[in-house]
Structures are given as structure tokens and as C-alpha cells.
Amino acid sequence: MLLSKPKSYPTPIRAVGADYSQTRCVGGDGGTMIDTGALNRVIEYGENFVRAQAGVRVGTLVRALAERGQELPLTPEMGHISLGACAVTTLPQASYRAGFAQMSSCISELKLITPQGKQMVVHERDRDLMRVLRSSYGLLGVVHEVVLRVRPLTAVKIDYHVLSLKEFAARCASMVDAPGALRLHISPFEDRITVERRTLDELGSTSRSGIWQIKSSVMRNVLPAFGSTVGSVLAAPGLRAVMLSRVQRALRATLDRATRGVVMYSHEWMRDLPAEAWKARHTYTLWAFPQADFPRVLSEYFAFCRAYYKQHRYRCNVVTGASRLHQDRGSLFSASYSGHMFTLEPSSTGDKGWEEFLIDFNEFASELGGTPTFNQTRALQPEHVAKAFGERLKLFRALRQRTDPLNRLRNSYFAYLLG
Ligand SMILES: Cc1cc2nc3c(=O)[nH]c(=O)nc-3n(C[C@H](O)[C@H](O)[C@H](O)COP(=O)(O)OP(=O)(O)OC[C@H]3O[C@@H](n4cnc5c(N)ncnc54)[C@H](O)[C@@H]3O)c2cc1C
Questions:
Q1: Which pLDDT tens digit goes with each residue over 51-95?
Q2: In contact, 62 and 121? CB cutoff 8 Å
Q3: Distance from C-alpha of 398 to C-alpha of 143, rounded to nearest angstrom
Q4: What backbone torsions phi and psi does residue 106 show, to the nearest 5 degrees?
Q5: Is 12 in the pocket of ligand 1 (CB under 6 A)?
Q6: Does the CB atom of residue 88 touch ligand 1 within 6 A?
Q7: What is the pLDDT of residues 176-190, one digit of tens each?
Q8: Distance between CA atoms of 144 and 53, rounded to whole angstroms?
Q9: What are phi and psi of 183, to 5 degrees?
């Protein structure tokens, strides 16, 4: 109804979840914003699925599932993401196996309203359609309900190893062959890569008691130490510089303990950021690179950071993150569509010099054959998008034009990047 009344509801019509994206992909442009926050009901819990409305936050859902002894195949660290955004954006996560490297691959059914105002239900068996919708960013319709796969809650063993760049390059091939999800915490100026391996303890053989008081120790000490929860730490204004150096100090102080190994459930690593996105002072950008090239990419990244600092006296003040992604063709703009990948995520508090750094970093990443995302890669340009997505971009553009010829759902951000 809303879609078919352009006079009352001006173009573009844009759905918004938690508004936590790193880019202007929501981009209301003074048109009509549909806040999905009121769609906050979990409708049905099944043995291997859960049905919920699009405005439910993933953190709320993950905690409710944990109470039932269930979890999603992937659990992000940030709890604010809406299920609508999980369904239609690129949210790569450190993955355990092929086919499950983005949140959207957990979606097995979605219900949406098309640009013509029609109801549509899409199931996983409609593979091609599902693949396109899982990368549609609200350009092909507004999602109001989703079904996600669930599995039994499984303990995760977490181990840390601290390596130099040289050691990482020597061990990378064997590390990626071993089971488990990999998350890296990278400090180019210290020549240090902390490798975090998360292994599913499917036999339930590890007792949690006596290892650590998981919630208090890991969440409050270890993860912040790696810069992972720096967003919430930095929420208090004026504390930035102090907090950053504390993060660096805590990193060193907790490493010895961390290497002993930790066991936790995935919902325990979720963190809550401020409800208003602008209050989270943690900002980052994300590109993905082929796994086989990653040691070389990392070596070039270290050199890039050092050269950039020498020339501009700017360096990122938060640890760079990275995740290994198995190949996942579940969505058209999947960051690991063409093979196994690693992300690279320079992070900062958004201090002076960050915006300029992003421009040069994007050139660096694109030149090395990187794949960006539309919601987590900042300062993106059309030529980066065309180079990374090629034919997939042309296909999406043609589909979008055909399904929304009046551009009811297209904002200026996507008009610029996709045409
Ligand atoms: C400090 C910080 C930390 C972060 N940490 C993580 C992390 O640990 N892991 C991770 O994966 N991501 C993380 N992110 C990234 C963020 O989660 C993603 O960018 C995600 O898209 C945000 O979800 P959202 O609900 O805020 O989406 P929004 O920003 O509200 O929307 C994203 C896009 O989806 C579209 N959309 C939203 N809902 C619908 C709907 N119902 N129907 C159709 N289209 C819709 C919007 O139009 C827009 O194009 C972080 C971001 C910040 C700022």
C-alpha cells in the first residue's frame, strides 16, 4: 500500500533495521523510511528452525535460542543487527565450513513486499531467487519475516597463538586446513598477529567448570583486550586515548592466560553496543581477499600501513581484525563467492585522518583483487564494485531495473554504486 502511493510516501522507500551499517546503504535521502523495529516478535521455535519478524535483533534471538539449547549456525559478535539486515546484507563471519560464511546463509525462507506492493514468500529451494534476495539491501523489496536454521547449542573451544608476520606466512596453509573458525587480531606496527581458533566441541568433552568463569573473564578481559569490544568501551566520551592505551596494555597482560584455552558458548561472545548507532565510536572497513594470497596481502598491508604513517603521520588506533571465510555462494554479493577468503578490517575510533586513510586503503585493496561489501566497506567507489563483482553486478543491475522500473526503493547511494 505504502509502495503504491508515491505522493503520500515519497521515493525512495528504505527499510531500516538497527541503522548500524558502516555506509549510507540505508540512505533515506528525504524519502520514506520504514523502521522495522516494531516487527519484534519471534513467531515459532522449531527443532531445526526459528521463524521471526524482521525487526528482531539477532542478540535477542540468539539468547532466546540458547535458553532452549539451540543456536544459529553462525553467531556475530554484535547483537544489534536486525534479522532483516541478516537476510539481505553481507555479514561475513569467521566460518566453520563451506556454504556458511555469511549470516544470510542461515536464512531458509523470507517474506517480503515487492516494489509493486505485492506479498512474496521465497524458500530455499528457489535457489537463484534466494541468492539474489540475500544480497538485495532493500532494493528488491521490504522483508518482514524470516526463517533461520538452528542447531543444538555447542560449546566452542577457543585457543590463541601469537605469531609474527613471518611465522604466520609459514603456518598459514596448515592453519587453514585444521578444523575450526579463525579470527585474527592484527597489529602491523608491532609485527604481531594473534590467531584465535574457535573449534566446535561437538562431543561435549570439555568441562567448563574450573577453566574460567567464562562470562566475567572472557567477555570483560580477553575479548576487549583484542580490541573486539572496543566499541562499547569507547562509548563514554573523552576516554578515547586512555582506553586505547589500556586496550593495548590489557592485550599484553591477558595473552599468557588466553593461550591456555577457553571454552564458551557462542551467545556469550555477543556484545551490546549503544541502542543509538552514532554513540558507538568504533568504526571499521572490510574487504575480503583470496585465502591463498592472504600471507602476501598481509605482508603488503604491513608495508602499506608503515609507508602511510611515514607520509601522513596517521595510523589506525584500533587493532585490525580479520576472519577466515569458507566459500559461500548463498548470496550474489557474498564476500567469499569465488572461493575461501580472509577479510581484512582496519579499525579506528574515527579520529582525524581516518577518512583520508580509507581512500588510499580502498585503492590498495582493490588493486590486490579485494572484494568489498555495500554495508561494511567505507568510501566505496563504482570502479571498486565493478572490478570486484563483474558479471554478478550486471545481473543484479538488470534484475533491479526490471523489478523496480520506477526506482521506488533505490537511494542515491546505490544509484551511484550500481547505476
Ligand atoms: C561498532 C560496530 C560494530 C559492528 N560489529 C559487527 C560484528 O561484530 N559482526 C557483524 O557481522 N557486523 C558488525 N557490524 C556491522 C553491522 O552489523 C552491519 O553493517 C549490519 O548491516 C547492520 O545491521 P542493521 O540492522 O543495523 O542494518 P541497517 O544498517 O539498518 O540496514 C542495512 C541494510 O539492510 C537494509 N534492510 C534492513 N532491514 C531490511 C528489511 N527488513 N528489508 C529489506 N531491507 C532491509 C537497509 O535498507 C540497508 O540497506 C558492526 C557495526 C558497527 C557500527
A1: 999 999 999 999 999 999 999 999 998 889 999 999 999 999 999
A2: no
A3: 21
A4: -80, -10
A5: no
A6: yes
A7: 999 999 999 899 999
A8: 6
A9: -125, 130
